[in-house]
Amino acid sequence: MSHASRSVKTVFIKTYGCQMNERDSDAVAAMLCNRGYALADSERDADVILLNTCSVRDLAEQKALGKMGLLTRMKRRRPGLVLGFMGCMAQRLGPQLLERVPKADLVVGTQKLHRIPDHLDRLLANGRHPVTDVADEAGSENAICGHVAPQARPTAFVSIMQGCDMQCSFCIVPATRGTERSRSIDDILAEVRALVACGVKEVTLLGQIVTSYGRGQMPIVHGNSPFVQLLEAVNSVPGLERIRFMSAHPQGFRDDLIHCYGRLDKLCEHVHLPVQSGSDRILRAMRRTYTLDPYRRIVEKLRARVPDIAVSTDIIVGFPGETDADFAASVKLCKEMEYDNVFLFKYSNRSGTPAAALPGQLPAEEIVRRHHQLWKLTETHAAHRSSALVGRVLPVLAEGEPETKKVEGRLFGRTRCNRLVYFPGDASQRGQTLDIRITRAKPHTLYGEPDLPSAGH
Asked: What pTM does this model have?
């Protein structure tokens, strides 16, 4: 049967970038399924292909543009194929994308994702009049809250807010996601309860800066910020086992949030706290609104409260003007902190950001050299912290079977401290929290065996 004659149109969504984009893709897919579309297993089977794009680094944009270039060749063989950009690059470039890729049909920005089903209906019914929809829309933060078949996955992302009011000099996000808008606690709780009813055991609360949740919109109650109030409310949902969140900002990580660890039983012992640089001078140039001393105090307090807590961070290498001494300060910080995981980024010049105009832009080869040096160090720390878990029995939420055939007959899941674990098991155990004895460790991956009770017990 040809694509044109098929009654149910199929959609394939390819996602670039962060967990927020993964969450948005899931929500768009759910809306399309509710409208009568079906999800395709591959690009070859799809009537519609959407690229959910990222603008944080130039490389992510180039990947999406390159991919769309390949898809336009496919469209020569299948003229009925609908191609679209959505997300951050669509928001940033808008109609320019249709000029650069004339065979694309649809460009939809971050506040218009819920309009995609309507746009596709019109495109498929009325022929090809390309659509660009990137205007701001009040209330859009409440429109992206659907999920596709959550019963197939024991974990889910829940968006609690959109946008960002910080003005970090390197970041394009405020331009692509808009100003901060927070959903109500009641709306978020309703979504979490619905997910739990479908078998979800763990939720990750998402925002560009979750510690800004509700700021200026909701009151502080008994000294607790709106975000802490949200954590308390989600922690009380029956049937939910675990809570995570991404990402925090040091400026908003106050004692009320620190005290949630060890107090809220479902809050996992893992914190992702981006530092971006080990140099106060560079932090000022980045407009990060904190210095290293308060950052260190946050980590010290967290580790004092929960000694086994896992701490991860983001660091940008090669920011404009970064001297050897500034880089050495980042190396020193990593040695001091011994992070469980460091997401290292080579500085990417984004036009329209203040950092793009700063003097002292570093040569690419020097950025690569520094990146590699710091990567080797942080991998050593990650390996050390992982190896310390060998021999321990840890509760692991079984998420499913790995895609790779190299580990057939195994399941994968995560510890509460966010370590990936592979262990023997079968699909019937998905969604169960199992006691796994760790037998082997790599920097970011653990291997183990189910810790079975001894005979006679």
From this structure: 0.86
